[in-house]
Amino acid sequence: MRFNKYIWNLYKESESGRTIINNWTPLESFSNEKYAIKVRDSTIKNLNNCDLNRYIIDSKVNINQLLFDYLKTKHDFPNDNIRELYTKFIETGISINNFLACPSNEPIFWVVTIKMISEILYDLHPDYFFPYKFDCEFNKLTKICLEFEIPLPKIPKKQDWFKRAFYYIELCDAFYEFRKMNDFSPSEFCAFLYDFAPNNLKEIEDTEMPNPSKVWFVGGNKMNFEYLDNAVKSSIDSWQCNLDTRRGDIIVMYCLTPRSFIHSIWRANSDGFADPFFYYFNVAYLSDPIILEHKITQKDLINNSIWSNNPLVKKNLQGINGYPIKYREYVELLSMLENKGQRITDFPLIKPTTRLETNDLIGERDVEIKLIEPFFLLLGYSPNDWLRQMPVRMGRGERNFPDYCFSAKPKKGEESAKMIIEAKYEIKTQKQLLETYYQTKSYAMRLQSTCFTIAAKEGIWIFQSKNESFKIEDCIHYNWIDIENPDILHELKQLIGKK
To answer: On the chain, which terminus has fewer CB atoms closer than 10 Å, C or N?
Structure first.
C-alpha cells in the first residue's frame, strides 16, 4: 500500500498516536535502573583504572551512558560525513580513556549489538539515525518496506561481516529519504515504523498451521538445554534454520554434545528468512513442540539401516542447523520412537500428494485441466497467477500463444512473463522433446522469462536460465508419479513454486 497521509494524520492527532510519538522522543540520559548491565570483574577493573568509575553501579555498568557521553563530546554527525565516521568506528573501534568500549576490526560486534548502538546513535543524532528494534524479525521490517514502498537495500551475503555491520547505515539512508519525503519528525517516523505500519498492514492472520511440506534438522547446545526442556505447547522462539523452511514444516530438534540425542519435534511458525543482524543469518520461528519421552541418540542413528546412510550422520551431525531430512527418514524416525514405546499418533505427518492421474486423457486440453493446473495448485499458485494463451508477436505479424504465462505483462509490444508452460498431449521421443524445447525456448527468450516448463502425460521438463541462456542438457525431468514423493514435490516448490 502507498503511504496515506490522511490516515496518518488521523493517527497522529489521536490520543494514543500522540502518546506513542511522544514516547519516541530522543533521550538525553540513560537511567541506571534500565540500562546498567552485569559485566565481568575484569571490565569493572578496567573502568576503574581508566577513571570511568562513575559509570559503575554496584557490579553493573551503564555502557549506553558511557558511549553517549563520549560520542556527544567528541563527535558531531554531519549527514555528509556519517558513512565515513561509521566506517572508522568499525575499523578502529571506540576507545575512551584507554578503555576499549568497542573493539577494532570486529564488525561482528557491531552486527550483534546493533540494537544498543542504534539507540545511542538515534539519541545523539535523531535527524539521521533510527533505533533498530527488529531483533530476529527482519521479515517484519521487510514486509513493512514492501507494503509502504520503501526501497529496501539489498541484504549482504552471510560471510561479509563488514557489509552486514554497515547495512544499518544503508537502512538509515533509505529511511531518511522516506522520512523527508513524508515530512516525518524523527519521533513520528519511529511511531510509524513500530506502531502505525505494523497495525495497518493488509494482512489476514492465518491462525491455522498449514500442512507441512518438508522436514528439517536444527540443533541446540548447552545454552539452549534449559529452554528446550521447559518448552510447552505455546512456546515460540526464533532459531537458526534453512532459508527454504516454510511455515508448517516439521522441525527435528537435536541436542548437541554432551547430550547427543533428538530432543523434540517442532513446527515452523514462519517461513525461513535472512536477517543481516542475526549472528547465524538464517532464521525461522518454531512452535508447537512435542518433547520426546524416549530419546533417539546419535548411536541409534548410526546403527539404523536407513539413517546410517545419511550424509549428516556420517559427518557426526556437524552442520545440523537447517539440514533437510528425507521423508522416509522421518517416517523411520517415528518407527524408531514407536519401538522405544513412544506414542506417535500426535506427531505431524506430511499428507500424501493427491495422485495426478494420467489415464483417460484424450487430448492436450485434458493434460492442462487434469495435470498441469492441479500441479500448479500444489505448488501454491491460484488460477489468478497465470494467463492462458497470451498473444505474443514473434516476427512479422506472426502471433503465437504460449499455453500458460506466469507473472505475465500482456501490454502490446512490451509482453513479458517470468515463467511459461507449454502443454503437449504426449512426448514419447527425443525428437518430440527437442521440437517442443526449441518452440518454447523461443517464447521464453521473447518474453524475457527466467524459466520454462514443458508438460505432457509423460511428465514435466523444467528449464532454467543460466547466464541468460537455456540448455537442454540442464533439463530437470519428473514423471507424474514422482511428484507424489514429498521430497520431490518440495524440490519442485523451490524450483518453480509461487514462493
So the answer is: C
